[in-house]
Design a protein that fits this description.
Two copies of one chain form a homodimer. By secondary structure, chain A is an alpha/beta fold. Chain A is built from 16 helices and 18 strands. Chains A and B meet through helix 3, helix 4, helix 5, helix 6 and helix 7 of A and helix 3, helix 4, helix 5, helix 6 and helix 7 of B.
Chain lengths: 525, 525
């Protein structure tokens, strides 16, 4: 049986709700008679081109409402007697009794909310309709170790529910902190233990925790110029004064660090967004500055799990003899951002304050996935998975470099040493990043200039070079997808060059015409 | 075979690590020879009195390290050839090269961290060694719907891993927001929809989000006196000036609300900590104040799922004609705090700013348990579970009230109308809450005075009455446990009364002796 149902992914409602509501209506209208047999969830899923879980969920809702009945193993049927549904709640009208007062209130509110409009672009883009998306720092969901993960979760849920029911230690599940300590020791040369590790809801929360501890109105915070916007916004949001410090091919230019800063936020492994790796010389200079000025360094090692062409430099934290470096890591790139598990390795004196701050922010992280991840690391599954990704991403990076070199030789490639994205510099005489970005989007390919790539620019970053930079995250695309995407980018670039030529030609023509006119205006002799 | 292993739950390391390390040592010392068969995980778990998962985890670690080998179905054995282990990381010495500079730095750091020592008591107590714990607001893990929950999680994980790998909508999973909108409509009379709901990491994060949006240095925030410490600390931490407003048996005394406040934080269902329910009259007065002063109201409905003796008053939010109430709810009490899922129902104009603020705080909540909870609610499982808990907790509340009335008739009971804890007022002529609390703890019973019960007191709260208040959370204790606990409390009270009598008598004796001495000091006549 084919049901008269349509679903629209772009609608404001989930597919499951759309399906449930339309079937509910069909039943209540009597168009689906009692005892009618429903199509099998698999068939309906195919008809509507949705996942089978979506249909199962919709059926389950209607069963709970008493509109459907399941008779194993025969199938699902419309209920014998259909109950009268409760009226669904309506949103209240906003109109208040006293307009004047309310306008006054609203005015004050707007003022209070002013700042927050700026935070806009920190949001990761959602529901992009693109055939090939080079969005930065996104892993490939197709290689997530789902079977292992599922069995780990089930194992963790065996036995007592106490961990699901009680508040956990704000610092995080002990087993996970132990696992993280071993992990950063083995992969980043950081000698630490569980007492120094704090589990966060991703690096973004780690930055908030730091800001809560160290940043007040008027406190100077040194940041890279350009830098990761999510960090800049958080420090500014806590009243900090951002002190941009330039970066070059060796990373942060440490001689330009202000002594006044209480905190310096850096991305040494793979500078965000420009991709440089901070040289050993600069790392030592940075640490010397921190010791000299009595400041902290926040080391954001967001995509450290992926290094190619030989061993990575050890983390800044591993050289931190004075315990002034706060190390921030995440499993968002190596496993998935939907788990929301990051961590900090803290200086001794910050451990307790950070634990209290985490308790004030949101008590602690959820237990289950922390416990599963701890087992995954301790039992060697994570190391194996990371190895596998490193091999895969190396191939994809090589393939992208080759495809670009062949198809768009005039595009200069940087930041290939590590991470999950390349930095492309467009030629000075061609179209800028924004033109390429928007035209590529029109052809179903997502590439990102620094600003739409969540980078924060400062006055010193103004001018041409940065507006000719494109970020290409390659981790989530297969080699075949990369080839096709680069073909389309090539067409985009050629089309834009052609336009430029035409415009240039038009420019000349207009000039000539103007000349002609001026001639005619000469008084006749 | 009995292994020479000991575990200590009080040690700073997880049981799993303790077991793994001791077995590792036995193998590396050669005391467990290659090919030796290990005891079955079940036996070892029994010997050590730990869960079997703990042993399985320890074996799995050692297997990953190559020290153990599993030969299904025979069992687990010490490996044929034992590899040389990598040296485990040592924590670096803290001593720096230049003591003076470092002391300078440290001094500045201490200053910056000063505030955070205050936040101390927001932490939920951990690893309490008590036979019977009346800690407030904790559900009974023994009735968690584990089987259903496990199958929901597995169902959610079927199919694509995309949700585990990508950042979600900062506002929360759409299906869960839809489910929450229906839930608060049905149970609290709040007419809303998914666009107004934002999913948070518990109410604590909701409070932070509000503070981020509305509180700046010097902004007045009206709070109940006494109030929930977690809220007071957050608002103060963002620079807000707390304006305590007294509470009585009708709840907040609205006539005392300052016009200057940009925000009023209230707990209308079950005032924290004193348990009063805000009367309808007062609710209307509170809303009138908000409209008049153009302020927001934060309605913390932390344990609204449990009402006894008839229907609850509708939520303040349901009477909110001017859209000035921010409603905060949580699943920490009805399901479990370890899930870390709370929600806000927001005024229209706060939705986008709140969404951006959530993105800045930590991007979004983890996906999996949000998705499972959505299905749990939509399919009717949650409503059924909540109904079951309500029946269970009603019995436990009644049992506690009866046991107290019988065993400690001089203790006055309040706040029985709802929630998960009773408020006990100790007689004015007897020992105070702190004495009862500490002596009860010594006998394995946890009861809490307002301060150790996470309440924030203000100068106006000083004086006797509040120091004679005890909070007794009963949700996690069976009737049998409650009976035994109340027996012990009775002994405590009697013992304290006796002490008082003795001290009083001693006081007299001392007085007499003093008199005698002074007499002897008279110069002989």
């Amino acid at each position: 049986m084919q049901l008269p149902i349509r679903v629209d992914p772009a609608a404001g409602k989930s597919l499951q709700s759309q399906i449930a509501e339309q079937i509910r209506q069909l039943i209540l209208d009597g168009r689906l008679a009692p005892r009618t047999r429903m199509p099998a969830s698999r068939e309906l899923a195919q008809d509507l081109d949705v996942s089978r879980n979506t249909v199962i969920g919709a059926f389950a809702r209607l069963t709970a409402e008493g509109l459907l009945q399941t008779r194993e193993p025969i199938g699902t049927f419309v209920a014998e007697s259909v109950p009268i549904p409760a009226p669904s709640p309506q949103v209240l009208p906003h109109a208040g009794s006293d307009e004047t007062t309310r306008r006054g209130a609203r005015a004050r509110i707007r003022q209070r909310l002013q700042f927050h409009d700026e935070s806009h672009q920190v949001l990761a883009p959602h529901a992009r309709q693109l055939s090939f998306d080079f969005w930065v720092g996104r892993p490939d969901a197709r290689v997530f170790p789902m079977r292992v993960w599922q069995s780990l979760l089930v194992r963790m849920l065996r036995g007592s529910a106490v961990h699901l029911c009680e508040y956990g230690d704000p610092q995080g599940v002990l087993e996970l902190r132990e696992a993280v300590a071993v992990h950063v020791g083995a992969t980043r040369g950081i000698a630490t233990d569980a007492s120094r590790v704090l589990i966060t809801n991703g690096i973004q929360e780690g930055l908030n925790l730091l800001a809560w501890l160290l940043v007040r109105r008027g406190v100077d915070v040194a940041v890279e110029s350009p830098c990761y916007r999510g960090a800049a916004r958080v420090f500014a949001g806590h009243g900090g004064v951002l002190r941009p410090v330039p970066v070059d091919e060796e990373g942060l230019v440490c001689t330009r660090l202000p002594r006044s800063a209480a905190l310096a936020y850096v991305t040494p492994s793979h500078q965000y967004p420009l991709g440089a790796t901070l040289s050993l010389r600069r790392r030592q200079a940075l640490l010397a500055w921190a010791e000299d000025s009595g400041s902290y360094i926040a080391e954001d090692d967001y995509d450290c799990d992926f290094f190619y062409d030989g061993a990575p430099l050890p983390a800044l934290k591993s050289l931190d003899r004075n315990d002034q470096v706060i190390y921030l890591g995440t499993f968002s790139k190596s496993l998935g951002a939907g788990l929301r598990i990051g961590y900090m390795v803290l200086p001794a004196e910050l451990c307790e304050p950070a634990r209290h701050a985490k308790a004030l922010l949101n008590n602690c992280q959820p237990w289950l996935e922390q416990a599963a991840l701890a087992a995954f690391i301790h039992e060697g599954g994570f190391a194996e998975h990371a190895r596998r990704l490193r091999q895969l991403y190396t191939l994809r990076r090589n393939h992208l470099c080759a495809a670009l070199a062949h198809g768009l030789p005039e595009w200069q490639i940087d930041g290939r040493g590590g991470g999950m994205h390349l930095v492309v510099r467009l030629p000075a005489d061609g179209p800028d990043a924004q033109s390429v970005e928007s035209m590529a989007r029109a052809r179903g390919v997502g590439v990102y200039g620094v600003e739409n790539g969540n980078a924060q620019l400062f006055p010193a970053d103004a001018g041409d070079p940065l507006h000719r930079v494109l970020l290409l995250g390659y981790a989530a695309l297969t080699e075949a997808e990369i080839s096709e995407a680069v073909l389309r980018l090539r067409q985009v670039a050629r089309a834009l060059d052609a336009n430029d030529a035409v415009e240039a030609a038009q420019g000349l023509a207009v000039g000539a015409a103007a000349g002609a006119i001026s001639n005619t205006e000469k008084p006749p002799s």
